[in-house]
Amino acid sequence: MTKSAITECNAIGGSRSLSAAEHIVILAATGLIFAAILQAEPLQSANDRSRWSTVWSLVERGTFQIDKIDHYARWSTIDKVRYRTSESEPWHFYSSKPPLLSVIVAGFYAAERWTLGYGLFSDTTFVTRLLLLIVNGLPYWFALRSLCRCLIILDTSLPVRMFVVAVAGFGSMLNPYLTTLNNHTPAAAAAMFALTAAAEMLASRSRTIASTAIIAMSGRAFVALGFFAALSVCFELPAALLGVLSFILAMRIDRRLTLTHYVPAAVIPLAAFFITNWMATGGVKPFYATYGTETYVYEHNGIPSYWSNPRDLDANQETPVVYLFHCVLGHHGLLSLTPVLCLSICGWFMTLRRSANDVRRWMILTGAVFTVITLGFYLSRTQNYNYGGNSVGLRWMLWLSPFWWLAMVPVVERLTTRRTQVIGGMLLLVSITSVSWSLHRPWRPSWLYEQMESYGWIHYRSSPEPFKTPRSSVFGIMPSEPGATMTWRNSDGESLTITVSGKPPASITLLITVSLGEPNTHPFTFNLDQRAWQKRGEVLTNGPVSDATRMFELLASGFPDAVRSPVDNVPRRPFNPAGPTWIPSSTDPTKAWKVERAAARITVDDPGFGKCWHRCDVMYCDQLPFGVLQWKIQTSLDSTGEVIKTKTWVAVQK
Question: Which segments within 144-278 are labelled E, that is strand?
Answer without folding.
Answer: none
